[in-house]
Specification:
The chain is an alpha+beta fold and about 575 residues long. About 30% of the residues lie in helices and about 20% in strands. The chain has 3 domains: about 220 residues, no CATH class; about 170 residues, no CATH class; about 55 residues, no CATH class.
């Protein structure tokens, strides 16, 4: 078919973007749980009739391509000729649907126009509870993690399947919130379907579907051109998780080798460690997303995401590893490894061009507190996504108080007033963590600290110190230093490694410290005036200015002693040189 008129193509491009944006608004405004409507742990997407991604919520790289990965499995459950208008498919199966983990449920809706299947609308949203033990960190296989749903018709010809609703409700401690979020997902998909039908009525089915294919070709072409401008080469990078939440003495290594020649690029993860016994494994569909995101970050951040990335980027895995586990391996706490892998991908890509190198982010994470409802008789599950930080770049400090890499610009802590209204708790502190950002010529972003005073007995889920990144903290690059890691504290005492669940009493205070980002460049090259500004802002202490940056500040007058600073920096440079020679 001939190329579309450029104006028509741009109109289609603009419309599909607005459809996804409108779906996102409906999704979050319809959400019942705080993790969906306040922290916005969800996304929306539009796929073509072959389940190729046309547009997704660009604000959430974590879910890039996750919807379309169902294409590998859906035909085993429903053929295209078995789908009818009004059907809606529900699934959360990591291996029969390529979903991130069982807590993330996908709603997929076929869209018909003029009697033809033209597209699918899709939403993905985290569920605070879908069964399983409260401390699911102990899971050793998929079936211990909670309810697992393969692709199943949730609605047929527009009518809800009550048996499926009852099954889901019976497997949740908070059925009202769980079903409410699912219905919000359905509403968002229906809005997207209606808008798609309006688009087809305006331009015709053939023109719209041709436009989808051309948009994919355009992204693939732009990505190939961007790759051509990168130097050729082969670079490796790796990162470590402290443990897998089961075997606390075994660290886990994710490794990638990136080979690039011309417009061809391959991400090879075959060298990663064998799959874990604990629930930290990550499925390949999500690992591929880290590659797409990394390339977008170092080549052209304005690139929209669609199937064009899938056409260009090649990946290689070895089955039975932590990034390609065999079906049945637990994956419920995939977040630490997924974010670590994104940082490892960026670390490898940064070696192609130092100007594009970036310090490691603080990763993802948050807090989950479960109560039996001793005052109301109704169980409650509090889940909040908290801010870490981004690593520094060659041009600026890392962004503070933001979810790292894969969730950047999307996840956020919920409003304090909402939490205190809906849960038996008070939030007594929310602040940046001074000195947490990795020192460098450009400083890593700062993580946050947040304190919760419980008003009734509860249990706090614990993953591990620094989201299991304490042994190898978020790193700096090109002389930048690593960030400080976080932890969970009860009444000022850190919960020790190996404790999966901390039981707290009414009146106890739970403090959650989040990781920060790594630095870029030598800290001794940082402008002393900028260091002073950090001290005045509370981002760096006077002690941190002295020990990390070699800057002496008078805390009474808030001025720099330049002579003492020069002498200290020369001494620190000499000490570093001597250490290097000794090694």
């Amino acid at each position: 078919m001939a190329k579309l008129d450029p104006i028509v193509l741009e109109l289609i491009h603009s419309k599909v973007g607005s459809i996804v944006d409108e779906m996102r608004v409906v999704l979050f405004h319809s959400g019942y749980s705080t993790v969906l409507r306040e922290s916005e742990d969800g996304s929306a997407g539009l796929l073509d009739a072959q389940l190729r991604t046309v547009a997704v919520s660009k604000k959430l790289p974590l879910h890039f391509g996750s919807f379309s990965a169902i294409a590998e499995h859906l035909a085993r459950y429903y053929r295209a000729d078995e789908l009818e208008e009004g059907d809606i498919i529900l699934f959360n199966h990591p291996y029969a649907g390529n979903v991130t983990h069982p807590s993330d449920t996908v709603i997929l809706m076929p869209v018909f126009a003029q009697g033809t299947l033209v597209a699918f609308t899709a939403t993905l949203a985290h569920k605070a509870d879908l069964g399983g033990p409260q401390a699911a960190t102990a899971a050793r296989d998929l079936w211990e993690e909670g309810l697992v749903i393969p692709p199943t018709k949730f609605y047929a010809r527009g009518e809800v399947n009550r048996e499926v609703e009852r099954l889901v409700a019976a497997n949740s401690r908070i059925p009202m919130e769980t079903l409410g979020d699912l219905r919000g997902q359905v509403a968002a998909c229906r809005v997207g379907a209606q808008r798609m039908q309006e688009l087809c009525a305006r331009f015709g089915v053939q023109t719209v579907t041709a436009g989808f294919a051309e948009l994919m070709e355009r992204v693939a072409g732009r990505l190939r051109s961007a790759l051509e401008s990168m130097p050729d080469g082969n670079y490796e990078a790796d990162g470590m998780l402290d443990h897998d939440l089961i075997s606390f003495d075994r660290s886990l290594r994710v490794q990638v080798s990136v080979s690039k020649k011309g417009s061809d690029i391959l991400f090879d993860f075959s060298g990663s460690d064998p799959q874990a016994r604990g629930p930290v494994n990550v499925t390949p569909a999500l690992i591929k997303n880290t590659c797409y995101f990394g390339l977008m970050a170092v080549t052209d951040a304005s690139l929209p995401f669609n199937h064009g990335f899938v056409e260009v980027v090649r990946t290689r895995f070895r089955e039975g590893t932590i990034v390609c586990p065999r079906p049945g391996a637990p994956v419920s706490f995939y977040v630490p490894l997924a974010y670590l892998t994104a940082d490892v991908v960026l670390k490898a890509l940064g070696q192609f061009n130092a100007e594009r190198a970036v310090g490691s982010s603080g990763g993802g994470g948050g807090v989950r507190i479960v109560g039996a409802g001793s005052k109301t008789g109704r169980p409650w599950v509090f889940m909040e996504l908290l801010d870490t930080a981004l690593g520094a770049t060659s041009a600026q400090d890392g962004v503070s108080l933001i979810h790292g890499t894969l969730g950047v610009g999307q996840f956020r802590p919920g409003p304090i007033e909402i939490h205190e209204t809906e849960f038996p708790m008070r939030i007594t502190r929310f602040a940046v963590r001074a000195d947490s950002g990795g020192p460098g010529k450009f400083r890593g972003g700062l993580g946050c600290t947040r304190e919760y005073q419980l008003l009734e007995d509860a249990a706090v889920r614990v993953r591990g110190k620094g989201e299991m990144r304490s042994k190898v903290p978020p790193w700096g690059v090109l002389g930048g230093q690593p960030a400080r890691v976080g932890g969970i504290f009860v009444n000022g005492v850190e919960v020790p490694e190996g404790v999966r669940e901390a039981h707290v009493k009414a009146g106890d205070v739970v403090r959650v410290n989040m990781n920060a980002g790594g630095g870029y460049g030598n800290p001794l090259d940082r402008d002393p005036e900028i260091v002073l500004g950090d001290v005045m802002d509370g981002y760096v202490t006077a002690e941190g200015a002295r020990d990390d940056y070699g800057v002496i500040i008078d805390t009474e007058t808030l001025t720099i002693d330049y002579d003492a600073t020069h002498a200290l920096r020369e001494k620190m440079r000499q000490q570093k040189k001597e250490r290097s020679l000794g090694e």
